[in-house]
Amino acid sequence: MNQKFLQIIVLCSLLFQSCSFEDSEKSYEERLVVFGSISANLPVIDTVLVSKTAEINEDINASQLWINNADVKLIDDSTGSILRYYNLGSGRYFPITDTSGIQTYDKYLNFVIRPGSTYKLVVISEMGDSVIATTTVPTEMNMRSADLGQYVCPDGTVLPVDSIDIKNLENLSFAELMQLYANPINYVSENNINVDSVVYRFGECYTKSFASYPMFGVDFDSENYETIKILTYALEANKIGLEPLDTLSSILDPDSGGFFDYNFNGIRDSVLVNLIYDTTLGFRIWKGQYPRLTNNIPYRINPWQWNIEEAPTPIMWLYFDYYGLQLMTFKATSESYFNYFSGDPVGQNIYLLPDSNFEDGLGVFYSSNEYRFLLNVVRE
């Protein structure tokens, strides 16, 4: 027994001597960090953000990392056309500014991103450091309404899933898109746009998880794309009005009786009346606590964003934070977007960097092809 034990000790010592456990420490190198995107069939609508990295133990304010004197340009690979960006402050760059002349505006509006084409984003800092990223713009998704059939609730109730019109904003121009954002209600009315409504319901069947009852479904050619980015923009999120009445509430208004006291001040006053408000435990698990404005008024981040990879996709309660008119945008994204978000962009692991397409730099430059439609979310 002692002899076997001695042999094991000798063997282990030989193994440890033959193995090297020397860890090499990678020296820090300052890098440029760039974020930007382009969308098919539109001029540039996204600002490019340019900054630099800092060492972990470096005593520096984050605002000092912005770079405001960089040379930023977008190049169309097939034509060689160049669109220059101008600094707006705080590391932000865009092709036009408040002081741009007519020629600059014309060039900006005529530089429309073409589906299937390849573009380069080139950034050169004032110190001479440069990074380049390339993206190929996705082609259209062939969007269509999905027939999801029937849904069975946890209690056995069988409900049909609605089908809505998702082709009410096809071939929308940039100018028309700006008009829609500026005054959505008037735009819908003046252009006689058909907008279907879906009902937002509460309860175990409707607001429990991602597997809850779908309000409707959307289908597209998912096999052609890595990731689809969905944005739900509530166009009437900022509507202000008195807190809603509640006959069961012990908080009373002298003129109106019981009411929902959204901002916890004991007074029936103005809040965001289109906010979908729920403080039940299950709701808070999925949605989290409501952020609050300086006067304690609750709100939700608008637009809401999610990434999906498969179709058809059910659209349920989690996609909506407000009642009223909603602009839903499905964005087929380029490979660089998928690769970046396959890394660790939200910082779960501080030792793992997202997969950037900027060689010798950080960040991501990606492209998308967007499809939009309008719907209305109404109260039960």
Please provide a written account of the structure.
It is globular, with a radius of gyration of 27 Å. It has 2 domains: 32-137, Immunoglobulin-like (Sandwich), CATH 2.60.40; 144-239 and 274-332 and 371-379, no CATH class. The model has no long low-confidence stretch (mean pLDDT 87). Strands 1, 2, 3, 4, 5, 6, 7, 11, 13, 18, 20 and 21 form a 12-stranded mixed sheet that branches. It has a 3-stranded antiparallel sheet with strand order 8-12-19, with no helix packed on it. Helix content is 15%, strand content 30%. The chain has 380 residues and is α+β, with helices and mostly antiparallel strands. The protein starts with a helix and ends with a strand. It contains 6 helices and 21 strands. A hairpin with a 5-residue loop joins strand 3 (71-76) and strand 4.
Gap between N and C termini: 79 Å
CA-based shape: globular
The beta-strand count equals: 21
Order of helices and strands: HEEEEEHEEEEEHHEEEEEEEHEEEHE
Which structural class best describes the helix and strand composition? Answer: alpha+beta
Entry summary:
The chain folds into two domains: 32-137, Immunoglobulin-like, CATH 2.60.40; 144-239 and 274-332 and 371-379, no CATH class. It is an alpha+beta fold and 380 residues long.
List the helices and strands and how they pair.
Elements: H1 2-18, E1 32-39, E2 48-52, E3 71-76, E4 82-89, E5 92-94, H2 102-110, E6 118-124, E7 130-136, E8 144-146, E9 150-152, E10 158-160, H3 174-182, H4 184-190, E11 197-200, E12 216-219, E13 228-234, E14 240-242, E15 252-253, E16 257-258, E17 270-272, H5 281-287, E18 304-308, E19 313-315, E20 324-333, H6 335-341, E21 362-379
Parallel strand pairs: 1-21, 11-21
Antiparallel strand pairs: 1-2, 2-5, 3-4, 3-6, 4-5, 6-7, 8-12, 9-10, 12-19, 13-18, 13-20, 14-17, 15-16, 20-21
Helix pairs in contact: 3-4
